[in-house]
Amino acid sequence: MNPDEILKFLRLTYTALSDGALLALIALALVLIYKATDVINFANGEFMLVGGYIGYQLLVWLQVIESPSVAVLLAVIGMVVATTLVGVLVERLVLRPLIGEPIISVIMVTIGLSNVMQAIVGLIWGKNPRPLPIDIIPRFSPFRIELEGARRPLNLLPDTLIILVIAFILVGGLLLFFSRSKHGIAMRATADDQQAAMSMGISIRFIFALTWSLAAIAAAVAGLIIAHVTNGVSGDIPGVGLRAFPVIILGGLDSIAGAIIGGFAIAFIETFASGYIDPGLKTVSPYLVLLIVLMIKPYGLFGQKRIERV
Amino acid sequence: MLSLNNIEVIYNDVILVLKGLSLQVEQGSIVALLGANGAGKSTTLKSISGLLRPENGEVTDGTILYEGKPIQNREPSEIVRAGIFQVMEGRRVFEHLTVEENLRAGGYTADDGGAAQRMKLVYDYFPRLAERRQQVAGFLSGGEQQMLAIGRALMAQPRLMMLDEPSLGLAPMLVQNIFQIIKRINEEQGMTILLVEQNANIALSIAHYAYIMENGRVVLEGKPQDLRENADVREFYLGLTEVGNRKSYREVKHYKRRKRWLS
Question: Closest residue of B to A204, CA-based?
Answer without folding.
Answer: B77
